[in-house]
Every structure is written in structure tokens, then in C-alpha cells.
Amino acid sequence: MSSILLVVFSVLFLVLCGRFLYIQGTGEVSGVSLEEWADKQRTSTYEIEATRGTIYDRNGMTLAYDRATYRVQAVISDKYSDNLEEPQHVTDPQKTAEKLAPLLNMEVAEMVKVIEDGKAEGLYQVEFGTKGRDLSQETKEKIEALKLPGIKFQEESIRYYPNGQFAARVIGLAQKNDNNKISGVTGIELEMDDLLSGEKGKISYQRDKYATKLLDPKEVIKEPNNGDNVYLTLDQKIQTFLEDAMSQVEAQYSPARMSAIVMNPKTGEVLAMGNRPSYNPNDIGEVKNWYNDTIANPFEPGSTMKIFTLASAISAGVWNPNDTYQSGTYSVQGGSINDWRRDWGTITYLEGIQRSSNVGAAKLAYEKIGPDKFLDYLNAFDFDEVSGIDLPGEVAGQILYRYPIEQVTTSFGQGTTVTPIQLMKAATSVANDGKMMRPYVISKVVDPNTNKVIKETKPEVVGEPITADVAKQVRDILETVITSENGTGKVYKLNDYSVAGKTGTAQIPGGPNGRYLTGDENYVFSFLGMAPKDDPELMMYVSIKQPNLGKNEVGSEPVSFIFKSVMENSLHYLEINPDQEDTANISTVQVPDVTNQSVSSATDQLSKLGFNVTKIGNGQTVTGVYPEVGTKALPNERVLVLTNKPTVPSMKGWSVRDVLKFSSLTGMKVDTMGTGFAIKQSIQKDTPIQSDGYLVVEFAPPSYIEEEVESPEETTE
């Protein structure tokens, strides 16, 4: 028996020795390299987040970027301080908490408990939940100044939007997902997520059991590929005009919804786009509506649709402005429709457009053009499809056109639905001599490392539903909606620029028995206008749903406030020459070069030429002049003379145009609010000018003139 056991043990000994010799010789166990396994066990690998691309406006103003934040960590294991002269872990939880907790808005006892619980569990380090995350650089520096042993920081990134709710639905929202990666949720952040995100990098190094890097760590670094930068067509200045105006209307009228778009009709570039209600992407809170209504909320547009009925009639050769018809009521198979007033009697078709007659539009579409041909025109204006704008979530409206009554109501914007961006796309053909442009908001994509443009959007003609001559005729007629005695759009008249446009007062479905809502406020009030009329540089659409109107107020008042404020200010900002001033018999004068002259001499010279001279500062020498030297200006025009000691002047009574001259001359950033003449400014007179300063000027009209405007009754006007 003992011999058998001796043999068995001998065999086992030889097998084990052979196994050890094999492992020693090959360095492998079950096909796994021990050296590689050991390297892996003592190697730490971390991903390096790529910086998400920055979103800019057309002029390089930052709209969204990754901002560094910090997460505070407390090392609580005393092993981390082995063989070190100074402790590198938390040695006194109570003292640490007393100093640190106030900076994190925590209770001292709460922080002590987190540290003590971590020690009891044998943890290496602990964190302090949401209160210890997303710390600013300022807070980090305050904590570092305390020189608390064991308190460390981990840098992280959050997506930050420096202008708050500014164009929130266009820029969109990016947040950290379940993998702690910032990714797009809405808007441009979602549309361009792949290009904005970039690719993560990686770093690996060898460490000891306490996670301390070895002297020879064999460090390997793969740099991240940061995301590309995206430039939008939005103009920060024009968007600010729009945001300010919409905020004022929201505060005063509390409408259910508001939407507005400002576009360059010659290119299709969206210069501003706004919605209410909105949200601040830095502090979301409760969001009442996540949709971008300008592209994703089809609705019955009302009488702005008559623009395209008119254009179709002219294009079809059936428009005669002097033809007459009986207004009031019109009946077809399936029902009848009414004008918003029924006491006009027999009127011309031109007057019908000016008065926004439903009957006139219906007779043009159903009797003169014909239903089939009118549908062809609607399709040519692309009302049967999405606009193609480069934003996610676009939804097309629907042409409701099965029965005669639907064919009639479509002519004045009832039944058939569209989105604001569909209306604007179609209207580019009117403003742009027949050429219909695809709307877009992404200007270009730029590599952040090389500044090379890797993608650029070019203006795209997507159709020519009407000719240039027809477009001109439509603009001429739409101008009379603003200027004629019968026009519903008189309140939309600008001070310095001619306007062609059309009002809208659309009924809202949802009443009892499938009818429309009733009541003076239960409408979507809107306006689509372009200016200057002969060669439109800007086109704008505004719609306001169910505003809370005061006594004797009508729906056009909040709409016109937004339109006039934004359009007038934007056209001046773009330095578009006014076309409303009668300058035919007035000779212009060239601004002379008075730089480096004494202020008194320059002022005298400019005054003799008929200019209204305003000194900027108290210096004795002229360093600049605006309008610029060589520019032709009108007599009595304000000319600004910049002195060598520039200070902010009193701007009371200045026009928006004068204030923008000041901005151009001094380089000072200026925001304007309202229309008319300056009444308040945020920086006091005689304050030294700083080129990076920021000035806000508020304007108001010299007086308010009550104008006759449309007042809807039972049906859409």
C-alpha cells in the first residue's frame, strides 16, 4: 500500500514540477501570457473626453460650448499617505467638513457622515453627490485655498449656453447621457451631433496597488479628436432684437403660443427664429413645449395664405384689380363662407385684397383660376411637403382639398394647414423675383484644429412657381395693404422703409360640435412682411395665439409691435438705406476728412456743410468721424465726431440709426429695445468709453396714434 502511495505522490510531484517548469519557460497559463496579465492588472486606462464642438452665430459669437466644471473628491484611506511627509488623505473629518461644507451648501454633519461611512466600508475615497459636482472654477479655487489634505478634484465638462433662452429651440440642448457623454437632444445639438461630438482619446499607465503612477509608468496617450465647430446663419444682434420684443409681448399679453422667423429672402438664410413659451437650457425647469413651433406645429394660417392666392391669379392671367364682385357671403357645394365684415357691398378685387376679403380670395381661386389649376400652384409653392430646413423634427402641413368647400377655404387659409417655415419658404419667391429658396440655419462646419471649412451650405433655388414680373406685381399690391385707406395692415407701417405684407387672423379648431373657438382673443393673429418693398432685404413672419387683449385692444397690436421693432432695428443694423424719405430733390453732401484736426475746427467745418454735429468725448483732437469719410450724407444728418478722450454721450432723442452709428464708430456693443427715439440708456453720460463695454438703449415712439385695424368676427379674415 505504501509503495502505491509513493508512486502516486511521485507522479504528482513530477507533474507539478513539470507544470512549474512549463510556466516558467513559456510564461503562459491556459494560453494567457502572465506578463501581459500582470501588465493589465497594474495598468490603469482612462478615456479622455473629446471637447464637443462650439456653436457660433454667423459673426462668430459663441452660442454653445463645453465649459469646464469640477467634481470634488475626498481621499479617506490613510494608505494613500504611506511614506509621505505630509498627509494626502482626510485626517480630520470634522475640521474638513466645517471648512468645506459651506462652499458646497451642505450641512457639516451630513458631510462628516459621508466621510465616516466611507471609512467604515473601507473605501478609498468618497464624493458628495450632486452638491459636490458641476463646481465652477471660482468655487474650486476657493476650496483649494483652504489647503485641506485629501481633497482632490476631477475635471468634467458640461454644455453651457451663454445667452440662456436665446434661440433655444434652434441651438437645441445637449446633456450627459447614461454613459456620461454629452450628446445632442434637440435642435442643432441633435442635428449635428456626430460632427459636434468628435472621438474620445485614451491614456494608460502602470501603477502600484494604491493607484500611484510608477516611476516608469510606460504611459501611452491617444489624443482625442475634438468635435467640429458649427456656424449658424443666425445673427446674434437680430436674434436679440427678436428675443427682446417677444419677451415684452409675453410679459404684457401672456399668449398661449408665439412664433417668429426673420429670413434673408435672397438666400434662404434664417437670421432669427424664436418661440414662446421657451426655456433656459442652462436651467431647464419645467418645459411646457419641447417643439420648435416654427417648423413642427402645422396650423391653419388664415389670410397670410392670400399672398399665394393672389400670386396664382396674376400668374394664371386672370387677375384684374378693377373687376368687381359682391362681398359678404359666398356659397359653394358643402357650405358657405363669410367676410369678416359684411357691409362692404360691391368692391374691386384690389380692394378685396386690401380689406382681406375671404369672398374675394375664394372667387379668385374657385371661379377664375379653377380648383385643379390652383392646386397645381399650391404644389408649386411646395405646400405639400416639408421645407427642407436643416433642423430636426420638421413636420409638413396638409392641403385639405377633397371637396368644393375645402378648395374654397384653402384660398384664405382655413382647413389647410402649414407651418411658419413653409409660409416663409413659399414667400421667398415673392420677395426674390420668383426664385423660391430652401431655408437653412447651418452656415458652415469648421475643423477646430486647422480652421478649415469642411462643409458649407450654399443658397439653393428649389423652384420658380412665379415669374419676376408676377413677384413684383404681388409686392406692389401687398404694399397697398399697408398704405391704402382700406388696408388691414396700416399698423405695420415702418418709419424708414416701405413694406409689402399681409395680415392674418386665423380661427382655432376645438370649439363645441367640431366648430371653431369663439371670442375676440381666440385667434392666431399673424403678419408676413418684407422690406424694402422693391428689393426686399429681410422678410419676417410673426404669429401670436390667443393673447390676453386689454379693453379696446386688437390682435394686431402685439404682432405689429414685434414686427416693427425687429424689422426697423434690423434693417438699420444691416445698414440698408431707407427708402421712405423723400430725397429726390435733396442733394447729398460728402463727409470730409476732419481726422487729426482740432474738435472746434472740425465741428465748424461740418456744421457749415449742414450736418448736425455731435461730439463724442471731451478731447481736443478728432480721431474719427461717422458716417465715414467720403460717405454721402443728407443735410441735417447726425454726424458723430470722436475725440481723443471719448465718453458716452446722452442719447436722449437719438434714432436707432444714430445709436448704431455710435456703435460702429466706437466699437462699443449696443443693444436696442423698442422703436422710435431713445429715452433711456444703461450707461450714464460722460462715462469713459471702453471698446468692450456693453450699452443698452431703450426707445419709444413720440406718440401713439390709434389706427383702424381689422377686427375679426365669426370667420377667418
TrEMBL record:
It is found in: Membrane. InterPro entries: Beta-lactam/transpept (IPR050515), Beta-lactam/transpept-like (IPR012338), PASTA_dom (IPR005543), PBP_dimer (IPR005311), PBP_dimer_sf (IPR036138), PCN-bd_Tpept (IPR001460). It comes from the Bacteria. Its EC number is 3.4.16.4. GO terms for molecular function: penicillin binding; serine-type D-Ala-D-Ala carboxypeptidase activity. Gene3D superfamilies: 2.20.70.70, 3.30.10.20, 3.30.70.2110, DD-peptidase/beta-lactamase superfamily (3.40.710.10), Penicillin-binding protein 2a (Domain 2) (3.90.1310.10). The keyword Disulfide bond does not apply. It is an enzyme of class 3 (hydrolase). The keyword Coiled coil does not apply. Residues 585-645 form the PASTA domain. Pathway: Cell wall biogenesis; peptidoglycan biosynthesis. PROSITE patterns: PASTA (PS51178). GO terms for cellular component: plasma membrane. It catalyses: Preferential cleavage: (Ac)2-L-Lys-D-Ala-|-D-Ala. Also transpeptidation of peptidyl-alanyl moieties that are N-acyl substituents of D-alanine. Pfam families: PASTA (PF03793), PBP_dimer (PF03717), Transpeptidase (PF00905). Keywords: Membrane. GO terms for biological process: cell wall organization; peptidoglycan biosynthetic process. Belongs to the transpeptidase family. This is serine-type D-Ala-D-Ala carboxypeptidase. It comes from Radiobacillus deserti.
